[in-house]
Design a protein that fits this description.
Layout: H1 16-19, H2 23-34, H3 37-47, E1 54-55, H4 57-63, H5 79-92, H6 97-105, H7 176-184, H8 190-198, H9 202-205, H10 218-233, H11 243-257, E2 262-263
Antiparallel strand pairs: 1-2
Helix pairs in contact: 5-6, 5-10, 6-8, 6-11, 7-8, 8-10
Bound molecules: fe (iii) ion (2 copies).
Length: 264
C-alpha cells in the first residue's frame, strides 16, 4: 500500500467486507431485490430501440460529470477521471487503439442515470436473470427479496435457457454494460464489444459461475474481459488525470473510430 499517494494495493480493491463505502450494501440490497426478468425485458424494450437521445461521446461525458457510482467501493471521482485512468493504463501497456478507446468508453452507458434510471438499474455487478441466482454473485443473500427467486421456473438451474446456449443469448441484469454494448455495436470490433458487455459480470469472468450457460466462444470472450479488468480496477487512483492535456489525443481517437453523433 502506497499510503502517501493514496493508491491502494491490488488485494484491497473490491474489498466489500472491509472498505465498502457505506452506500454499497444498501445499493446491492435494492439491486438484487428488483432486477427481475420482467424488469430487464421492460428496460430492453424501452431503451434498445436507441431512440432516447442523439449525442456524441464528449457530450455524454459532460453530462456524466457529477455522477459518482454508489456501487463502487473504490472510487469517489467523476466518471471522466475513471475513464481516462483506464484508457491511459491501457495505452501505457501498448493496447491496440480500439481497446484504448474502449477503456475510455466502457462505463459511458451510465448516462442511463441522466435518463432518470436509479443507480440500482445502471451500475454494479451484473448477473443472468431468468435462471437461478448464483451464490457467487456479490451479496447473494439479498436475492431472497427478489420475486424470481420464488418462481420455480425462473429459479431453476437453467431457468428459461438451454444448456450451453451462449452468454450472448442470456438476459443480464439491466445496466450500463448491456446498454452501451447496443449503442456501440455498429462501431467497435468484437473483442471491444465483449469487454463493454460483460465487464461487470464478475460472477462469470472472475468466479466461473454460469459455465453451464456458456457456449464454445464464451471462454475466449471471458478471457478478453479478464485481461481488461486490471486496467478498469487497478488504475483507480484519487489523482485526477489532466483532462485538458489528454483530450486532443482522445478526440482524435474517437473521431477515427466513431461517428460524431451516436444513437442512444
Ligand atoms: Fe462499468
Ligand atoms: Fe469502470
Amino acid at each position: 500500500m502506497q499510503a502517501s499517494s493514496g493508491r491502494k494495493d491490488e488485494s484491497s480493491f473490491r474489498d466489500y467486507a472491509a472498505e465498502a463505502r457505506g452506500c454499497v450494501p444498501e445499493f446491492y440490497r435494492e439491486n438484487h431485490a428488483r432486477q427481475t426478468l420482467e424488469f430487464v425485458l421492460e428496460k430492453k424494450a424501452q431503451y434498445l430501440p436507441l431512440r432516447t437521445r442523439r449525442m456524441g461521446v464528449w457530450e455524454a461525458f459532460e453530462a456524466l460529470a457529477d455522477l459518482v457510482d454508489d456501487s463502487d467501493p473504490d472510487l469517489e471521482l467523476p466518471q471522466i477521471d475513471h475513464a481516462l485512468q483506464t484508457a491511459e493504463a491501457l495505452r501505457a501497456a501498448g493496447a491496440a487503439p480500439p481497446m484504448v478507446l474502449t477503456g475510455l468508453l466502457h462505463d459511458l452507458g451510465k448516462v442511463l442515470c441522466l435518463f432518470g434510471e436509479p443507480q440500482w438499474a445502471v451500475v454494479g455487478d451484473t448477473f443472468p436473470v431468468g435462471c437461478a441466482f448464483s451464490d457467487r454473485i456479490v451479496y447473494p443473500r439479498f436475492f431472497d427479496a427478489n420475486p424470481d427467486a420464488r418462481d420455480p421456473r425462473l429459479s431453476s438451474r437453467l431457468g428459461i435457457y438451454a444448456e450451453g446456449c451462449g452468454l450472448e443469448n442470456v438476459h443480464f441484469s439491466w445496466g450500463h454494460d448491456e446498454y452501451l454494448y447496443h449503442v456501440l455495436r455498429p462501431h467497435l470490433p468484437p473483442d471491444c464489444l465483449d469487454v463493454i458487455r460483460f465487464h461487470s459480470f464478475y460472477a462469470g469472468h472472475r468466479e466461473g459461475a454460469y459455465a453451464h450457460l456458456e457456449d464454445p466462444r464464451d471462454a475466449a470472450r471471458l478471457a478478453t474481459v479478464r485481461a481488461f479488468n486490471p486496467y478498469d480496477l487497478y488504475s483507480k487512483s484519487p489523482e485526477r488525470p489532466d483532462f485538458a492535456k489528454l483530450r486532443p489525443f482522445y478526440e482524435a481517437l474517437a473521431r477515427e473510430l466513431l461517428p460524431p453523433v451516436l444513437q442512444w
